[in-house]
Amino acid sequence: MSQAALQRLKERFPDAVTEAYTGPGGDDVALVKKESIEEVCRFLKSDPETAFDMAPYITAVDYMGSEPRFELVYQMYSTTRNHRLRLRVGVPESDPVVRSVTPLWKGANWYERYCWDLYGIRFEGHPDMRRLYMYEEFVGHPLRKDYSLRGRQPLIPERQVDEPFRGPGPSGS
Amino acid sequence: MSATSDLDLVPAIATRREDALSGLEKMVSKGLGWARKYSLFQYPFVTACCGMEFMAVAAARYDLDRFGAALPRFSPRQADLLMVVGTVNVKQAPILRRVYDSMADPKWVVAFGVCASSGGFYDNYATVQGIDRIIPVDVYIPGCPPRPEQVLDGIILLQQKIQDQPHKLIDREKPALPAKG
Amino acid sequence: MSKATETAVHPVPAAASPLDAPFPTKRMLVNLGPSHPAMHGTVRAVVELDGEAVHAMKLDIGFLHRGFEKSCENVTWTQVFPYTDRLNYVSSIMNNVGYALAVEKLAGLQVPERAQYLRVITSELHRMCDHLTLISAMGLELGAMTVLIYGMEARDLIWDRLTELCGARLTSNYARVGGVSRDVPPGWNEKVLRILDRTEALRVEIDRLLTRNRIVIDRTRGTGVVSREDAIDYGFTGPCLRASGVSYDVRKASPYLVYDRLDFDVPVGSNGDNFDRYLMRMEEMKQSDRIVRQCFDQMQPGAIAADDSRYVLPPKPEVYGSIEGAMAHFKIIMEGIKVPAGEAYAYVEAANGELGFYAVSDGSGRPYKLGVRAPGWNMLMALPQMMEGKLLADLIPTFDTINMIGGEVEQ
Predict the structure, then answer these.
(1) Is the pLDDT of residue C343 over 60?
(2) Chains touching C (3+ CB pairs < 8 Å)
(3) Fewer CB near the terminus (10 Å): N or C of chain C?
């Protein structure tokens, strides 16, 4: 919700910001290139006019079938200026590595671990890059679109149940 | 003895010699059953939303204390009723198994809520579809979350089940070891 | 017995007599496992103890991960509401409202006024339930069991009224895209005002028991301190952020629904410790009471859902009486509402902080992605830093006041 912050970002990084628009409901969004995300975030945090001091909400979306496959979304908020900004960063499947913003905001730590755990996007420079939700023995990244909904990987052996609706076994049909 | 099927009910006419209880033993069984059912020490294995209803059941309005099941014992060695309250997911399953194995006989298990009974509507990669896939369950209390009255009904059913089981004063049988798989 | 070759934290200097020498100690790793009464269910904390002080703490979560996001991608937009209920399960209506706001933002729907007032009333009632649960749990874990009993009684009273309205005590599933699901039953307003009086009386009792209690003050004042800069850096929101001195409340900063017409105060603390966080919640319950009463005064009869048959189920007489009604009903139920493609982020002031929903739609009847910004997550992330160097016993009130609700942290 901040046209001024969006303009300032575009002026400062004309080549890193590929697109800037206002989405439904008035959300200001900027599409940023993957390589410059750390620079952009550092600017957004330290510049007194944008002043995005609160740790962003970082999540990822899997657009399977389009290129780049993943998109990281950084939802930023400034407590002093009371404005918000959304950054969308395209992350290709062939090179799913992004610079971490944890040195800037301590609160970005677990969000990046979540993106690694559930989507497979690795963060360079993160102090503790390991799984957050799933256990270490888990293979795969569950929220990717090609991971099946019922793909259970039991840790201890489970009793096999013959269910006509869901089918036998822990993973069902 | 943890009962898992109707075969554990004390039959009026015993069909096997070792199951036959004499008159005195029947009286002892009834007395022990009475004592055990009215002094349940629960281990509330609380994970999710059903925990809120568990708090409400244990509080003053839907008092669980009048059924003798008020005192939670947070050590599995000291508890005899394992109340699995809420969703058990695949990461939590080994812990549930371990807690169940640590409990001493006689022990009973109540699956509180539909996530514990059958997985609820979380039919996905993360959730165990019912704790009876890992441990034997005595009473299932469905509901999402169940109303406290349903929970009390479940406890009463469990108490009837406990009463009807054969109890021995000195149980020389080896307890049934948990089956593998 | 410690051998001479073992490395000790405090090496033994040469002393005059063995009785004067300081006792060599070693740090101990203790596992506060996932099934633990003080861990509120499902967080595993591995603490390295130096005597009674916590030297370091590592958190292991994921023991309640129920695949919320993946489940939501496989059901229709309206079927997501029960899943959102179970995120922050003590105040579920706020989750419903947040999600509904995200979808309405994408669809560009206008919600009628009465529905907005109803959403605000039920949200504030559930906010009171959340705070009551926290205070009851805190009282219980600090040893004041009476507070639990009083808090549960107040919570049960509120839940009874919500049962009349929504059908369920806890997981309400009340909001719908475009409004709310049903209107209030007759006489509901007066009943709610009566129980608000009773809840206020119980809150005053609890206040008398806890706020000036020597034990509570000793255990909570000065423990779990989070400085203002740290709180913002970690992304704290809600009562925990306000306790550290930042007056950020979504209801005042970017008012949504009808909060701009209501008159209420936002308490702000100064120390950022557990006692302040507890006081925030006591005060917010008073303010919620004020908000609900104002809403009852201001609410007018009217429609409870938008009049758009692409998103809202038409009323039953139309469904059975006209072809268009039957078709609209069929399409909404079988295919799901068709939300235009795009992405939106909507946020509400939940009991714990800023609860945000990031919804991505590809134009079909199912969400393409639904992300949740859980407020409790940031506080839990900061817990190891809050506990460094503090006593193990301080973990209990700290864990209570940050209000980590497993459902929302582990989605």
Answers:
(1) yes
(2) A, B
(3) N
Contact C35 B99 (CB under 8 A): yes
- Residue C406 C-alpha, separation from nearest chain B C-alpha, in angstroms: 7
Which chain B residues touch C136 with a CB distance below 8 Å?
55
From C65, C115, C119, select the one nearest C92 (Cα to Cα).
C119
Are B67 and B108 a contacting pair, CB within 8 Å? no
Domain A3-124 architecture = 2-Layer Sandwich (3.30)
pTM, 2 dp = 0.90
Average pLDDT, chain C: 88
Q: What is the pLDDT of residues C295-309, one digit of tens each?
A: 999 999 988 888 888
Q: For tokens 């009904």, what's the residue?
A: B153
Instruction: Count how many Cα atoms sit within 13 Å of the Cα of residue B125 in the half-sphere of its side chain.
Output: 25
Residue C223 is encoded by which pair of tokens?
Answer: 């423990």
> Does A158 contact B at CB distance below 8 Å?
yes
Nearest-10 crossing angle of helices C113-142, B50-58: 60
Nearest chain C alpha carbon to A145: C70
Measure in Å the smallest separation between the Cα of A140 and chain B Cα atoms.
11
Cβ distance of C360 and A57 shorter than 8 Å: no
Alpha carbon separation from B177 to A162, B173, B174, C138 (Å, rounded): 24, 11, 8, 40
User: How big is the B-C interface in CB pairs under 8 Å?
Assistant: 96
Strand extents, DSSP E, chain A: 17-22, 28-32, 54-62, 70-77, 84-91, 97-99, 122-124
> In sequence order, which residues have a C-beta less than 8 Å from that of residue C134 and are 6 or more positions away?
C281, C400, C401, C403
CB–CB of B60 and C70 under 8 A? Answer: no
CA distance A114 to chain B (A): 15
Cβ proximity of B129 and B100 under 8 Å: no
B94, B88 contact by CB (below 8 A): no
C344–A23 CB contact, under 8 Å: yes
Q: Report CB contact under 8 Å: A149, C369.
A: no
Rounded to whole angstroms, the Cα distance separating C405 from C41 reads 9
Residue A168 sits at the chain B interface (C-beta within 8 Å): no
Say how many CA atoms lie within 13 Å of C313 toward its Cβ: 18
- pLDDT score recorded for residue C40: 74
User: What domains appear along chain C, each with residue ranges and CATH number?
Assistant: 68-409 (1.10.645.10)
**What is the DSSP secondary structure assignment for residue A108, as one 8-state letter?**
G
Q: Are β-strands B108-112 and B139-141 bridged in parallel, bridged antiparallel, or unpaired?
A: parallel
C33: tokens are 């496992």
pLDDT tens, residue by residue, C16-45 = 677 777 777 788 899 888 887 766 768 888
List of chain C residues whose C-beta atoms are within 8 Å of the C-beta of residue B86: 41, 64
Nearest residue of C to residue B73, measured between CA atoms: C37
Maximum C-alpha span of chain B: 53
Asked if the C-beta of C198 comes within 8 angstroms of chain B's C-beta atoms, the answer is no
Residue extents of the structural domains in chain A? 3-124
Q: Do C136 and B99 touch (CB under 8 A)?
A: no
Using CB atoms, pick whichever of A54, A84, A131 lies closest to residue C235.
Answer: A54
CATH architecture assignment, domain B41-154? 3-Layer(aba) Sandwich (3.40)
pLDDT 10s digits, C203-245: 999 999 999 999 999 999 988 899 999 999 999 999 999 999 9
Chains that touch A (3 or more CB pairs under 8 A): B, C
**Is any Cβ of chain C less than 8 angstroms from the Cβ of A31?**
no
Classify A100 as helix, strand or coil: coil
A66 touches chain C (CB under 8 A): no
